[in-house]
Amino acid sequence: MVSRLLRSPRFPRSLQAPILVATAAAILLALRPPERSEMNPGAALVWQLWWTLLPFFILPTARLWCAVCPFSALGDLAQRLRRLTAPLPPARLRAVGPWMAALGLAIMGFLFLLLSLESSGTFTALLLLAFASGALVSSLLWRGRVWCRYLCPLGLMAGLYSRLAWLRLANTGDSTTASAAAARCCPLFTSPASARRAQDCVLCGSCMKAPGGSAIDARVERPTPSRETLSPPEAVAVSLLLGLLLADALRMTPPYLWYMVRAVPAMGGDYGAAMALGIAGIVALLLLHQGGAALVSGGGRWSWPAFGRLSLLLLPLALAAQLALSAQHLMAAGDVLRNLGAELGLLDPDHMPPVDAYGVVWPLKGLQLALLAAGSATSLYLAAARGVVDRVSLLVPALPALALLAIFWQPMSLTC
Amino acid sequence: MNRKLILAALPTAGLWLILMSCSPSNLPQVTQQAGPEPTVEGLPDYAYRSALALRGYQIAVRETALLAQLPCYCGCGQDPQYLNLRDCFLDDQGEFRSHGANCQVCLEEAEDAARWKNQGLSPGEIRARIDGEYEGRGKPTDTPPVSSDTPSGSAA
């Protein structure tokens, strides 16, 4: 069924168009008052629904979302209007782009936490417009989906998680040459399906529709992360992502208050500075720990492959943490959507906020702990499969896993 | 090897220790005794939930009289304990209430009120603006009209 969908000449355009319209509507709604996301329909749609559902979508479908992403649709549209054939992306961009995407992911995560990006209609609209501009400009400058392959921070994140996803394209086995020919039309400049890395394929189906594409098929199969490698920017991005997710999860628990009550006065009453220090501290601890372990395992010599190997062990933890956090946000979305309904005049506006923001919903807690247990188990499996057996290296995933379990064991904010 | 192991473990172990020291028994109380005269320094833990919440409680302490003259539109008006915006942050005994920390409308109203006061608006003018801006969000508290519309400096 998935193959039939991807081979359809109407895919992905028929899905891109309504999603593009919905995104434009979300931007317009986000720019309208009231500003706060609890009441702002645009920001609530983006952060309470789309953002929380995205990781649950990536796990079974890899980067399929990227195929129908409204920003790439905008880029595709711009390229169809362009008369001259655009050049290929330069080598420097291909080298630097992923670092820029990793930096963008870190900045976005930092702003998300620091400025409560998710609770601001204006910031939400600006962020969406920035993504749209990036996709549009890169599509006008270069051939294909340069934004999706090299520059998009969310594409980088989706690509990382795709290594643990179940859907991928593969050769049917009889015509490697034909599938290689089909791969030449790939807008993401990927390899033939037989050698394709899951993180580079957005499953747009271009190769399947091209001559020779019959040799390529969509398959649902068990992910094989033990065979994966991470490039240096991807390896750093995993650590940054996990650090930010740890900080985000911590923000929703009582220990966060314990920290802020002490840190805010210490920082002269500056809430933002106290928070920034906390986030930077967690991210720095994680990076230093991992970097130190990579040095130790390399006998005192720095090596990116050693660092990347440790990042690969952190990847299942990052995905588990993101899924667990998204589940928490989805739980809180009920209140937000009720407020939204009241704002639109669809529901009775009267409400009372909870007396205590922190609580335990046992089915949700069970799901979160199960997700983290699965992430930790996958991490251990990867360590064994990749021959990471020294205790120093094993502590790199073990300690964040314990920290995540301790954080999610706490009562968490039900109002986000 | 053991030394290296300890060095490598230190950073995350620190985070782990901090987390463990914050057991659920340290949860913020629903109300916290702040004495008859609540001060900015004695704010309850839950006031630190977000920058907006902290500003809200600081405003509630500094502008108690002004907030007592403004209705709250979050919907708390359905509870007879809530008669004005101040009641979302403090009760009659000067104890803090956690309601405001968890309510975006209360926090935004407090912030708007403080901003308009700084712009030199009188309590009556601030109330009129609050009514105009927030009407329809929820059942307002049954707050008596502003008695004397003196310049904003005398509100607190």
Brief summary:
The complex is a heterodimer of chains A (416) and B (156). By secondary structure, chain A is mainly α. Chain A is 67% helix and 3% strand.
| Spatial shape of chain B | globular
Number of helices of chain B: 5
Mean pLDDT across every amino acid position of chain B = 78
User: What is the makeup of the main sheet of chain B?
Assistant: 2 strands, antiparallel
* Sheet of most strands of chain A: 2 strands, antiparallel
Quick one: how many beta strands of chain B? 2
Helix content of chain B: 40-55%
Could you state the oligomeric state of the chains shown? heterodimer
| Intertermini distance of chain B | 64 Å
Identify low-pLDDT runs of chain B: 16-35
Features:
heterodimer, A: 416 residues, mainly alpha, two-stranded antiparallel ribbon, B: 156 residues, 2 strands, globular
Q: What does this protein look like?
A:
The complex is a heterodimer of chains A (416) and B (156). Chain A is mainly α. Helix content of chain A is 67%, strand content 3%. Chain A has 17 helices and 4 strands. The model of chain A has no long low-confidence stretch (mean pLDDT 90). In chain B, strands 1-2 form a two-stranded antiparallel ribbon. The N and C termini of chain B lie far apart (64 Å). Chain B contains 5 helices and 2 strands.
